[in-house]
Each structure stands twice: as structure tokens, then as C-alpha cells.
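Internal ticket #5521
Category: modeling
Description: The requester needs a full-assembly model to guide mutagenesis choices. All entity lines are attached below as received. Residue total reported by intake: 724.
Assigned to: D.W.
Attached entities:
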Amino acid sequence: MSWEVAEAQLAPIATGAALLGTGGGGNPYLGLLRMRELLRRGRRVHVVAGDELADDALVVSAGGMGAPTVSWEKLPQGEEEADAVRALEQHLGRRVDAIAPLEMGGSNSLVALAVGAQLGVPVLDGDGMGRAFPELQMVTYLIYGGSPSPAAVADEKRNRTVLADVADVYALERLARAVTIECGGHTGLAMCPMTGAEARSRCVPGTLTLALRIGTAIEEARRRGADPVEAVLEVAGGRRLFRGKIVDVERRLVGGFARGRTTLEGFGPDLGHAVAVDFQNENLIVRRDGEVLAMVPDLVVLCDVDSGEPLTTEVLRYGFRADVLVLPPSSVLTTPEALRFVGPRAFGYELDYRPAWQEQAG
Amino acid sequence: MSWEVAEAQLAPIATGAALLGTGGGGNPYLGLLRMRELLRRGRRVHVVAGDELADDALVVSAGGMGAPTVSWEKLPQGEEEADAVRALEQHLGRRVDAIAPLEMGGSNSLVALAVGAQLGVPVLDGDGMGRAFPELQMVTYLIYGGSPSPAAVADEKRNRTVLADVADVYALERLARAVTIECGGHTGLAMCPMTGAEARSRCVPGTLTLALRIGTAIEEARRRGADPVEAVLEVAGGRRLFRGKIVDVERRLVGGFARGRTTLEGFGPDLGHAVAVDFQNENLIVRRDGEVLAMVPDLVVLCDVDSGEPLTTEVLRYGFRADVLVLPPSSVLTTPEALRFVGPRAFGYELDYRPAWQEQAG
């Protein structure tokens, strides 16, 4: 089912995708501004389901790369991702037929739509993470058999780097990251050229629609004076883990990532407890009084308790009152193949993945 | 005048080019082993003068990139530079007709010959530095009008990165360096695709022949029991600045470069004095008791006092007895355009270039 993106959908998509982004994927407001400007200048973009892609279409995944904190000081110029796709087109000697979002994130959801609008091609209703993740080997297009090369990285000064051949997915991540850091910490990325049939079978399907539904539910709950977090849980599943006030944020830019830990002290039902949420661009693991409550690839989300607005890791600060939610990941992320790349051990935690998003007994 | 490279010429070319390399350009023995192996397997390579290149030939400059210290622990695999040229060929959609050496250096002179042998194309008798320099914007092919993109970087794991477009020569240097560091500190580089006419007019001409003449003069002097350093000065010009014993080497790997300072205490005619030689891969400046004696782009060379063997910066250590020589740079390097990129200020010294290689009055 194909739909044309309307300006009124941008804010709910950004909000819903920021929530799915689990703290990462870039700032929703910046993505919204970029896409809104394109629509107001008359550009159009369609979102298409996987089965609407021709089997032999050339599909390329695109999104922004870098620590979300960077875009706070160094605003994207707006052509980085389209330029990366153009560099890949030049390398392949062929124009792309559609864009597949790299990840769902406050900015990266709309950035994929913007690339579609800029290049005049549709955008797949789906993405390569079903959420946001910090590293490129965590993309489902790769996990399920895609080639890590060629890929292209472009910056706002029109530096265009093509990773023509890479030894493996980790080499793709390391080289693209090194180029991104050298370009100032943020670049546009185009990767995983694939057929329409491959994109369809390797993506996490339906995530643009899901983001729109989540964002719309939050907006409607606000209008009705209802609890927006309850509205999120109705659409996305999962549960509220903890309610507290942020009392500390440790954050440092290391190796091109925003790494750190957010500490919340409980109030209301959680008075007397504290949780710590580790993040690497995205939230990874929640511990309460030292005990692990939830872990990646479950979606760990911090939302403002009043507005339900998802809090991306670059805006976290002392005093915010937040609900910590855990939402179910797509089943595409919990296969044994996928957990090798996106489970807790892939992030250095000596833990086996245990889902925490179902309501627990007792 | 075209000539086919013979095995007996490899050692003198390596020695002569190591001398021209002013401490950098890689270890001569490693370059020699690579090229000797190719010849013994039946590969052949011709050295051609600039006027033997067809005006519209496609010429690409190739050489190794990285801190010379790295190759001491991480031996090159041997296909890196040829792979970089292949990546550039793929990007350009055309096979190269000849290789232009990037720089004269103990390893990089023979590496250019090896690439010619590997790809079955001749190698220009000339190079892009007339010596060795640490950074890419210092290449005469660029200084005299060449485009900094496209360029290609390849490592021993067959990671191939194409810098398809870069903002300027400094962006080329920064991005290629970032990729090189990420690849472990050493890569093969192919850059400056140009016509035969352009290569001829932008190169420092005749430097492979010059390296061979210098190396041959050193070997002959050794056989005759004569002073090899005197033999060098007869062929290359210049003079002996200082004779001393290395009493200290400060060396650190910073940003992908070997940076440091060598201190020598004089003996013989220089007893009671000390000189310090700063280097960034290559020797840059000589100070005696604090006074500047010679500076880049003059060729500052350290040679073993007995054998005349040039000492590259990665082998320097306490106790070596060395002559410090200063040789004239090619006039291609001392134009105002060139001094902007290769004069002392380009290396952070607040000095105007003053040649020091002529015998001084008084």
C-alpha cells in the first residue's frame, strides 16, 4: 500500500521514529525541518511496501552516520545522504529505483524520506534495524546476506568516499566510522545496494507506518488529556519499567560514538529505587539497584512523563522526569543470526538475551 | 631513454632513493625484497623518460602511505599499491598506461617499479617529490595543477577505498590518512590520474636515474675504499654539515606520522657541538647549538659514517655515528608555488626558506 507523505505526517513520524530509535538515530526536529522544507519547495515522496518494489529494482539504504551529539553543534547541510547515494550510483553506473531507510530514528526516518524526495524515488516502508543501532554490522540488510561493499560516505563539503571493497562488515563499520570522524563526526551514508526482492526479504518491514502510528497515538493522547505513554504501549506493545528523575548523565564522545550512562532516581511507584541506563548512541541496558531489567535488542526508551516525548540521548540532562519503557523488538532482530550482531554480547555485556517487554508474572 | 630494470640495479636504486628520501619513504630493504621477488618470477618493468609518454596516456601516481615505523612491525603484503591502482582503474573505467612514482624513498622508489611490474606498464623516470615528504598536498603533481580526486587507498586485506571527490588537497591528505590509520598505519595509494603530457610537466624529472647513480657511486666508493659520502656529494651536490654520534632519538607515532627529533654530539671536526634534527617521517630542519643550519625542502640526510648507508628515521638509534648532509632540492620544489606547500612554514616553522646546500663563505 503506497502513500504520499504529507506535511502533517512529519511530526508524528519523527516522534514515533524517535521512540523506536531508543535514544539514537538523530534529533527528530532537525529531520523534520529538512523534510518539511523539501515538501514546501514542492518535492514529493511516496512510501511503498516491500511487495511494491520490482524484484530487480536497485534499492540502496541511506541514512546519517555519526554521534547524535555532533548534530547539535554541527547542523547537517542537508545533501549529505543524497550525495552518498549519488556517489554510489556513479560507482555502480546505474541510478537507484528506491531508498531503503537505514534505521528508524528521530532524524534518520525523515532523512530517508528526504533522500527519496531529493532523488525523486520512493522510500521503502521498512528499515534495516527496526529501531536504531550504533554500528553498521547491525543492519539487517547485512545480517541476512547483503554485501558490505560498495558503500559511500559523503560530507557537507562534498567529500565523497566510496568503500569499493571491504574485507567484512566490521571493516565497513571501521572505515566508514574513520571517514566520518575525519569529516567532523557526521556524514551521510549509502550502503547495501540490493535488488527489490532482497530489500523486501531483509528489511524490518512496515516501520515507517509503525512510526506514524506511534506518533499519531501520542498526539491524540495529548489532545485527549490521556497518558501518552499508555497510548504508545497500546500501539507498540511492551511495558513501563520505571518512573524517575534523571539525577546524572555521564556522556563522552569516544571513537565517534556518544557513550555514557543515565541514572534515574525513582518517584511515585518507584520511590526508593534507582536505575542506570547505559548507552552507545542508543540505550542498551537497564539495571535497577544493580539487577538487569532489560537489554538490547529490546527497545529501551526514555519518554518525558508528561508529554510522552521520547528523549534522545543527546538531550538528556539532570532534572528530566522520565518513564523508562521496554518495547518488543522486531522478530527479525531476535533470530540467532541477528543476536550475534545485535544481542547484548555484541555490545560487550556477558549476558544472554532475555526479552523483558512482556508483563512479568508476580 | 627507456631502460629495463635489472636485478643488479635494485640495491643501488634502493640506496640512492633512501638517500633522496631524507629519512622517509620506507625501508629500502623491504622495497628491494618485493621487487627482486617479482623479477625472479619473470616480471619485467621498463623505466621511461617523460618525453616517451604519449601525450594522452593515462598515468597514475602510486606509492606506499603511512609512517615508516609501521612497516617495521607490519610487513607490507605486496599488492597494496597495485590494488589501489586497480581500484582507481575501476573507478575511471580505464586501464592505466604508466605509473608515476609518488616519491623517491628507500621503499617507495622500488614500490613504484613493483607496481609497474605487477600491472605490466612502464614507470616514469621521475616522481612527485624529488625526495620524500610526509603529506599528500606536497606532491608536485598536485602543486602544479593536478586534481586531488579521484584517489584510491588499499590495504593488505583487500579493503579498497576510493576518494571519489574531495574538497581540496588537504581533504585528500586528511581522508587518506584517516583510512590509512584505520587500516593499521600502512596502505597503498594511487592518486593524480593525469595525461602523459601532464605527468611530464608536473613531475620532478629523472629521479630514478639519479637514485641509481647515487647508489652506484656509493657502492663503487665502498669497493675502492674511498669515502662514500664524498661520492654522494659528487653526484648529488651539497655538502657535509656535521659529523656526530646519535645520543638521543625522541620518536612517537602521532596522527599516523613518525614524529621526533634526533640529537647528535659531534666528534672529529665537530667535537664540542651538538645538532638536533627534527623529523616528520622525513628530516625537516637541523639546528646546531640552537642555530638553524638547514631546512626543508633542502634534503637533510643522515648517513652512516663508514658505509655511507643512508639512515631512515625508523632505524635511528643511540650510538650510530652519522654524517649529516644537506643536498640541493630540485628547482621544481623551490618555486613560490611549491614553497607554499613544502617550505618550512608548511611544517609549522616560522622561517623563510634559505638554501644551505652551497658551500658557505668564511
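Resolution: model delivered.
Comment from assignee: DSSP finds eleven helices and 17 strands in chain A.
Ticket closed.
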